[in-house]
Amino acid sequence: MQAGKKCLSALDNWNMFSIKRLDINDIAVAGRIGQKFLQAGNVPQTHLQDLLSDGRNMVIAAFAGDAPVGFMVAYRFSGLAGKTLVYLYDIEVEPGYRRQGIGQSLVMALIDICRDQRVDQIWVGSSLSNRAACALWKATGATRVSDQYVEFTYDLRAPD
User: What pTM, to 2 d.p., does this model score?
Assistant: First the structure.
């Protein structure tokens, strides 16, 4: 496992953890993360190949030894205003490893990647009642832009 340039600065026990952006060679690891954190069952290998081979997708994982203990998924896209944006879609740290700086390290790894790719802005949505998430965004330098957060979804695979 490789640690990013600044990724581990937030960890008190930095030598116990590593942070890595997953790539096409990490299909099995991505599958384990999906099963462990998202109860995803057996995700088809072709789906994981598509996810990890598309450079716009950023899957970053935290490891204690070889065991994944946290992850994040973010997506880069171009906006009509001429800016390159990243949406931080999902982040989770295993309960026994929380409050050790792993979430901060995952976010800082994403920030480093985005700076290298000349991304203009990272966007993350969060419920204001999720105090841990709001504290994480604030601790890593995010600016709160709204007093409310409402999320809607279109489930395109729902039964009729």
Answer: 0.83
